[in-house]
Each structure stands twice: as C-alpha cells, then as structure tokens.
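Entry for zinc ion complex. Fields follow.
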Amino acid sequence: MASVDVFVVASGSQANALWLRAGETAILIDAGLAAETSVRRLRAAALPTTQIAAVLLTHEHDDHARGAGALARMLDVSVVANEATLAACSGLDGAVTDRIVEEGHYSIGPFRIEAVPVSHDAASPVAFVVDAGGLRVAVATDLGSVSEAFVERGRGADLVVIEANYDLRLLDVSPYPWFLKNRILGDRGHLSNEGAAKAVIAMHAGSRQDVLLAHLSDVNNLVPLARDTVASALAEESISDVAVEALRPNRGGVRRVLTVSREASSARGA
Ligand SMILES: [Zn+2]
Ligand SMILES: [Zn+2]
C-alpha cells in the first residue's frame, strides 16, 4: 500500500525542518537546524539520511535555511528553491542548487512538488503542495495571510502543515517591541491561530485530514491554545473528521504515516 512517512525534525521560531518519505526516497522541506543537529535527530528516529534526495527551501530566513548548504554538501544532494530564494540564501557556497522550474513545479523520485507563492517578508516565499503515491501534503510556513491559491491547492490534502504562530491576545501583552509586533501582525508577517483555523476550515473537503499546527511562537502562543482554537472552530462548523495537533515550539519528533484508504484512492482515480 502506498504511504508517505512524515517526520517533524524541528518547528518554531528557532528552526524548521520537515522530512517526507515515499518508498525509498525522502525530501527535506527547510533546514533551519545546524546540519549535524538535523542528522542527529533523523538518526535518533531511525530514519536513514542517505534516502534524502533533495533539500527544498520555502524561503531564505535563517530559521528555515541556516543548515541547508552544509546539509546538502554533507549528503551530496541539491538545495532546491526558486531563483530569488537561492540568490538571497547565505551559506550555499559549494552546495549544488537546483531551481524550481516549469511554473513552480519540481519532481524528484515519487514526489511531485508544487511551489505556491505566499505573503511573507522574504525574497520570494512559497508554500509547498507535495503529491506522492496518491497522497497529498500541504505545507505553509511562514505566511502573513492565506491566499486563495494555497487553499485551492491544499484543499482535501491528507496532511496540512500550517503555521499557527500567535494568539492575538498573547501577542498584544507580550514584551515584544512594537515594530516586531507590527511585523508579525502584518500581511507579510505570520499567521495567527484564528488565521490557521480559517485556512483549515477552507481546506476541508469532506474527507479525513490530519493537521499539524507549526511554527508556534514560544512567547506569543501556547500549544493547547493553538490546538483548541482550531479544534473549536472546526467543531463550530460541525467538521469532525479532522485531527489537529499543535507542534511544541523548538522541538521536533512528531511522526505521521499517511496511507491511502481504498475510498480515497478510488476517488482520486489512483
Ligand atoms: Zn520567515
Ligand atoms: Zn520562520
């Protein structure tokens, strides 16, 4: 049976990295940890780093790209991103890079990856919608607002990984300076718990879905608050087939194995 194996290597303001495997091929979306730390965490989870075929970047911010060059050199794989992100990235010297071509598509092994532009204060930030073996994973961090294009592409995805950065009340009373609060709140900043809830509801297509709330701020959010905000918004819409988990900031370790149900595979014509 087709399956996609998902492992959160890191999530939060300090570092982000998401590992996906289909068959014997794995990809890493973002590499915000030091390369050695990523390798250590993958090995601790018994996930072979030799299967990693590419390191994809959503954008060039340090918490997403810090370890990309070193990791790509270490594993002898390419760093894959759009041209503006590659140009804005530091630390890629000596690493092989590959541009996302053909209107935002990239294929490697069983993966077909679509880059969808998002609104964030980076050179050319994207979300990724990844298809493999009849399964779809939609990943969006960081983003100030959710575009119709991302909702459209991610609707009905088996797994949605979406930013739930802050709770508005906690951000309001937090010690962050005003300029930083305004940056986070802005259209090119980060997504609130309420923003994530709206997106998750819009992406529900009547089938079972897993949702991982990612990139939680350790100052302006709380794990139960993020989860409950999204879960109660779903309950208000009488949606009961979406499982929501909020990722603890600056930790990794959460694992999901997605499999194609017979119903879903016939619906997708797989
Ligand atoms: Zn960012
Ligand atoms: Zn970030």
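NOTE: Residues 3-267 form a domain with the Metallo-beta-lactamase; Chain A fold (CATH 3.60.15.10).
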